[in-house]
Design goal:
The structure holds 2 protein chains of 2 kinds. By secondary structure, chain A is α/β, with parallel strands linked by helices. Chain A is built from 11 helices and 7 strands. Chain B has a 7-stranded mixed sheet, with helices on both faces. Chain B has a 5-stranded mixed sheet with strand order 9-11-10-13-14, sandwiched between helices. Classes of the chains: A alpha/beta, B alpha/beta.
Chain lengths: 300, 329
């Protein structure tokens, strides 16, 4: 079977930087819209650059046809970052941003705090409790092999999630079942809820662990768009035999100075007028910088 | 009144027995021959769930996850999302306890087409002990939306149910035993399976015994013996514990006024609770008694010795019927 490619335009590095900046603004707006309920802002902002590269360049998807059989699958195993994913999905065209802003967390909304594939177009699995996504991804990758479908399965995990035992059951199984169509991404933003991962339950040396379990391991700066793109552009072929683990070094709360690198903003809101103003200023400045770089023709 | 023609014929006199685990393995292999999407999945218990022949005939569609049930169940959900039909079989205890959250989130909540098959359910593992017993599975899974719980009473029912599971979308749990169980039916064709239905093996208006799984044969034997004393005990077996046959419960409550439940499970949360919920909510005046494991971990012993200890054999059921009838009067 030949691989049908989506006809979507692939953004280049400079465009992706602007897209990521716009996603961050979208997240701030969604946080403001959710009022005192707030959301998982820290871990959503840390994944925005990788999400931009995935949804606006890498993934073979068709947002107008979310159930297209040959599409690539993205599972947000760190399902608490759903609000970040929703913003990316809305911008990609799966549903209107207005609906997201108006209904997030409301009664009968399609958008709750964690991922539900039956409610939200573009969401591929129900996640929220940690340690499930990689196994779900293994199953989807196995199904692709049986059905001669050439899609890849991308699973984004948290670094706190690496403490879950089920992750390591799945880590054993991926190489054993020769799933070169499976890409695990660890968002290494250094914090779980109660503090730095290395204080709560150390997970390092993380890359060595994945390598020892038999994965093709790539370590990147998860905020360096050119590195992200280069890595995703050069993944092993879909029909290869070894799954890939990308350790993406990131900063929790990236792009909003109030929250950046501050573990106490695993969860946060923007009710305070001053904080609201500061957060909006940060993300708008991010957009301005990306636009300036884009118009200057810079791609570095 | 149970009209004789609505009774399900059975034959225990020849003493024929067959393992439900074996019936599962045989049937799933037959189905795989015509359904290329069917996968057999286990966790290092291939022989115990009778998938050895499946592995030989379809090695490419047999997936062994090793001793890692959480990953096995969630991966099976992924396979189902990806369009495959996974039958996941291992001991009921490991399947529902170790992987409980995977069953709940990835099968029940995600409403995926995963067929869970728990062998050695209840205390059928005997001296293997409480780590290998499964006396909570029905209580846990009954509280999980979407999952259909199938409780076959013999191998022919098991065969019919496995075929139905393969045709029907959605998460399901099939509960099997360990040792061979008496064959109640004469063939698959004799099984009039209806999800949400029940079958009445013995008529009677003095008391109703609701039974599931391996306890059905014991209830029938008890009813046969009691009839010699002039006590007429109705015996009803549920094909599915969830959904449950409400009509059968309400009719029995109305017509017999005395209900006994018997299950190879903790008396909390399983069949007894399910029957009580229906009867009590309907306001039926009745005498009620649950038989099963009395909320304790069993001592060491063979399954038969343990069943006798807990009055879960024909003799114990008969004694309980007499108690209940005394109470009724």
């Amino acid at each position: 079977m030949t691989l049908k490619a989506s006809t979507r335009q692939k953004q280049d590095v400079a465009q992706l930087r602007l897209t990521a900046a716009e996603l961050r603004k979208g997240l701030v707006e969604l946080t403001i819209a959710s009022g005192s309920i707030g959301g998982h802002v820290g871990g959503s902002l840390s994944i925005m650059d990788v999400l931009a590269a995935l949804y606006f360049r890498q993934l073979n998807i068709d947002p107008s046809n979310p159930c297209w059989e040959e599409r690539d699958r993205f599972i947000l195993s760190k399902g608490h970052a759903a609000m970040g994913l929703y913003v990316a999905l809305a911008k990609a065209g799966y549903f209107p941003m207005e609906e997201l802003l108006q209904t997030y967390n409301q009664l009968n909304s399609r958008f709750g705090k964690h991922c539900d594939m039956h409610k939200t177009p573009g969401v591929e699995a129900n996640t929220g409790s940690l340690g499930h996504g990689l196994s779900l991804g293994i199953g989807l990758a196995i199904a692709a092999r049986y059905r001669w479908l050439k899609y890849r399965v991308y699973v984004m995990m948290g670094d706190g999630e690496q403490m879950e035992g089920a992750i390591w059951e799945a880590a054993m199984a991926g190489p054993h079942f020769k799933l070169g169509n499976l890409i695990a991404i660890v968002d290494r933003n250094k914090f779980c809820i109660d503090g730095p991962t290395e204080n709560i339950m150390p997970i390092e040396p993380l890359a060595a662990k994945w390598r020892d379990f038999g994965w093709n391991v790539i370590e990147i700066d998860g905020h360096d768009m050119s590195q992200i793109v280069e890595t995703l552009d050069n993944l092993p072929p879909v029909d290869s035999q070894t799954p890939t683990a990308i350790i993406s070094q990131t900063i929790k709360g990236r792009g909003v100075s109030l929250w950046e690198g501050n573990c106490w903003y695993h969860y946060g809101d923007l009710v305070d007028e001053k904080e609201k103003e500061l957060a909006l200023r940060d993300v708008e400045e991010g957009i301005a910088r990306a636009k300036a770089a884009l118009s200057a023709g810079s791609s570095c | 009144m149970v009209i004789e023609k609505t009774l399900t014929p059975y034959n225990l006199s020849e003493g024929k027995k067959h393992s439900t685990r074996k019936a599962f393995g045989e049937t799933v292999l037959e189905l795989a021959r015509s359904n290329p999407r069917l996968l057999a999945v286990t966790g290092d218990l291939t022989l115990s769930v009778n998938l050895t022949d499946f592995e030989k005939e379809f090695p490419e569609r047999f997936i062994n996850f090793g001793v890692a049930e959480q990953n096995m169940v969630a991966s099976a959900a992924g396979m189902a999302i990806g369009g495959m039909l996974p039958f996941v079989a291992t001991f009921a205890s490991f399947l529902t306890l170790r992987s409980c959250e995977q069953v709940r989130n990835d099968c029940s909540y995600a409403d995926t087409n995963v067929k869970l098959v728990g062998a050695n359910a209840g205390i059928s593992g005997g001296p293997a002990g409480p780590t290998h017993h499964s006396i909570e599975d029905l209580a846990m899974l009954r509280a999980m939306p979407n999952i259909i719980i199938l409780t076959p009473a013999d191998s022919f029912e098991t065969r019919v149910m496995v075929k139905w599971m393969a045709e029907q979308e959605g998460p399901m749990y099939l509960r099997l035993g360990r040792d061979p169980w008496p064959l109640l039916h004469s063939s698959e064709e004799a099984v009039n399976f209806r999800p949400g239905g029940s079958e009445c093996f013995c008529g009677g208006d003095d008391v109703t015994i609701f039974a599931i799984g391996n306890m059905v044969a014991e209830a029938i034997l008890a009813s046969e013996e009691l009839s010699k004393e002039g006590i007429h005990a109705r015996v009803v077996s549920f094909f599915t514990l969830k959904p449950i046959d409400r009509e059968a419960i309400l009719a029995a409550a109305r017509q017999t006024g005395a209900l006994i439940t018997i299950e190879d499970h903790n008396v909390i949360g399983g069949l007894g609770s399910a029957v009580a919920e229906v009867a009590v909510e309907a306001g039926a005046p009745l005498v009620f008694k649950r038989l099963g494991i009395p909320d304790e971990f069993s001592p060491i012993g063979s399954a038969d010795d343990l069943y006798a200890r807990y009055k879960m054999d024909a003799k114990g059921i008969m004694a309980t019927v007499r108690e209940v009838l005394a109470q009724k009067q």
